[in-house]
Write the structure tokens for this entry.
Amino acid sequence: MKIDLSGKSALITGGGRGIGREIAFKLASAGCDVAICDIDATTAEATAKDLEATGIKSIGIAANVADAASVEAMFKTFIEKFGKMDILVNNAGITRDGLVMRMKEEDWDAVLTVNLKSAFLCCREAARPMMKARSGTIISIASIVGLMGNAGQANYAAAKAGMIGLTKTLAKEFSSRNITVNAVAPGFIKTAMTDKLTDDDRAKLTNAIPLERLGYPDDIANAVLFLASPMASYITGHVLSVNGGLYM
Ligand code: NAP
């Protein structure tokens, strides 16, 4: 079955690069109209321009997903352009790694706010148009680290575990309105985020992965496309691990 999302509209947070950009192009390849949210206006607009060249409708929206007023304005702009929201992908995220003994309070707060509070703010805004339409799908990009923990990432692991709790709760709260809420938990994926790893750490990691490679953004985009498609219409509250077998 070929996935056809024509006539649908999606908002991808942090869609200007990395996994978010790949998700945007994957949904566009199925005919979905896509808005790109990025904290940087130039990146958001440039990505939207590239997406429009594929034949879909797209806009770039500069927004800080950690800020309630900015998120509210972003949804207003989205609805003005597309009239409805079918798909929300909570993808924006940051890391501020360090062992807990040395972790600064500001690094804890930044990661919890950008990675977790943002998903709450965006889901709360998306609920209104989706409930009105009695349909919609929300997909949040969590992490393997939220499932298994990782030394040096207490803030990030807590945020991603929180995102999984939020996903399951909203799946229950929104189900009566035919809105599905799921998460994708990537393993270690080749992006700017993992470029920070030393060669030695990357080699150790690769050895520990049963499929013997880091993931590609495309691996995550494929999972999101599936969850956004009618093929997944009976799946809600699920966490789909895409990690090469690193955590089972
Ligand atoms: P990335 O390359 O660093 O991209 C993150 C994107 O989020 C960027 O476009 C960034 O914008 C945007 N962003 C950051 N803070 C924002 C804010 N406050 N408001 C709006 N946008 C903001 O990261 P990635 O590797 O693609 O990761 C994407 C998601 O997957 C994240 O949630 C991450 O935690 C998750 N994930 C990644 C991996 C991995 O191995 N890479 C593994 C598991 C989970 P700017 O570029 O303009 O700053």
